[in-house]
# Entry
Amino acid sequence: MSAETGNVPLVLIVSGPSGSGKSTLVQKILELPGTMPSISCTTRPRRATESSGKCYDFVSEAEFEAMVARGEFFEYARVFGKYSYGTPKKWLEESRKRGLDLVLEIDVQGAAQVKEKLPESVAIFILPPSKEELERRLRGRGQDSDEEMARRLAKARDEIAAFGKYYDFCVVTPGPSAETSGIVWRKELMTVQTKAPESQFAYVVLAARRARQIMAGAPPLIENPRTQKATRVACEELEQGLLEFDVPEATSVDEDKDGNKRKK
# Structure
C-alpha cells in the first residue's frame, strides 16, 4: 500500500540546538515531494553570507513589533534575550492553498506555540550524538565568543531536557561513528536504525503522513497493534514493511529572483 498525503497539509516542526545539524537536514526534508519551506522573520543582524528572503527575512525591531501588533505571526519568540524570530501566518495559508506540507525550522519556544495552536502538527527534534560532539561542532564554526558559546551550550541543555514535552520524534544525527545515528520515538529507541540522515527524515515524514490517514479513519495494516496511537501504528507498519514508498534522489535546488527555492 502506498502512503499518500491527505487533503490537509501537515505542519512539520524541526528544532534542535545550535550545531545539531538541523539546517542541513531540513533541506533533506524539502527534497521530499509535497513539501515547502517557511521563511522566518528575525531582528538579528544579517551575516555577510546571508541575503534577505532566503533563510530569513531581516526586519527592524520596529517592523517586527508592528507585525506582532497586526497579528501577522503564527509563532514568535525572543531568543537569548536579544533578537526576535517569528513565522508569518502567510506561509501556513500558502501551504494550504498549494496543498504542500509546511516545514518550520523553529526553536522550542516556537514549537510550544505551534503545538498549542495545531496539536496535530508533527514535531521533530534534532540531536547530535553526544554533548561533546555538539560542543566540538559549535567551536569548529568559529563564529561565537566564549560568552556566546556558553550561552548556546546552556540553551542546548535546556532544549534537550524539554524535548520530550513537545516533540513526537527525535532524530540523532551521525557523529564520527555512523552507529550513533538513529530515530527515537517519544524517547523510545525504535527498532529501525538508519545511517543516512535523509533516510531518517523520509521515515519520519512518511510515518507522519500515514498517521494522518489513520486518524482520518483509515484502518491499520497490522493486526493487534501494540498501541492505538496513530503515529506509533504507522511506525509499526513501516517496521514490518507494509508501506511502499520511494526515497527520491537528492535534487538540485534553484532560486528565483525573489529568493524562493524551487526544485530543478
